[in-house]
């Protein structure tokens, strides 16, 4: 009987998450894909099923609703029974000065970028440990999409960068606590990646100068192929140029508010 690996990918309907899901499907992983909008998610799942012949189960879930987050893990458990890779790709960001940022702005980033990931990890650990025991060569992997702003601070991105720094720290600590059980966690911390979420930067940063979604997906796929003995806390991907540790973010202020929507992936 063939045993298929499975993965749960948040933010899986488009951009980096969709590309990671595609690479995993190419490796034969069955998938649970999560995002806010079911229509887009269902279409991504359909394409993966048709191209690779894997199961791809779309589950709509809002990352700022922790009950939905827990239900997402249960839906994966009900469908696949185990979990070889948990990919935390969903994220949100807003640029703005610390002095001016409203509480509701950074609270949403905390919800989506940190509370949801730690809740997912907590809910998924029993499944990850089970799959790690069944695959003692590779173990099970957690891969979290952080940001280079979580490694080096960037003016205008304090709250966003802080949530990503927390995510990086979470991955390292999970590995310290769980790698003995075969479960390790890796953060991937890129600079700007050319997706529709970074289209607002095109006036000052040409898309050709940005990282590609495939660059990030390649790193994620490499992590899933490592033995259980190899633990990588964080992978930083910077764009070519003379500001290696900076995302080169410039907040575009909304008049009268002092902050503006942005993302750094």
TrEMBL record:
Membrane spanning residue stretches: none
Keyword hit for Oxidoreductase: yes
Organism: Nocardia xishanensis
Domain Ketoreductase: 5-203
CDD domains: SDR_c
InterPro entries: KR_dom, NAD(P)-bd_dom_sf, Sc_DH/Rdtase_CS, SDR, SDR_fam
Recorded catalytic activity of this chain's protein: a (3R)-hydroxyacyl-[ACP] + NADP(+) = a 3-oxoacyl-[ACP] + NADPH + H(+)
Top-level taxon: Bacteria
Pfam families associated with the record: adh_short
PANTHER family, per database record: 3-OXOACYL-(ACYL-CARRIER-PROTEIN) REDUCTASE, 3-OXOACYL-[ACYL-CARRIER-PROTEIN] REDUCTASE FABG
Family to which this protein belongs: Belongs to the short-chain dehydrogenases/reductases (SDR) family.
GO terms, molecular function: oxidoreductase activity
Protein name (Swiss-Prot/TrEMBL): 3-oxoacyl-[acyl-carrier-protein] reductase MabA
Keywords from the UniProt entry: Cell wall, Oxidoreductase, Secreted
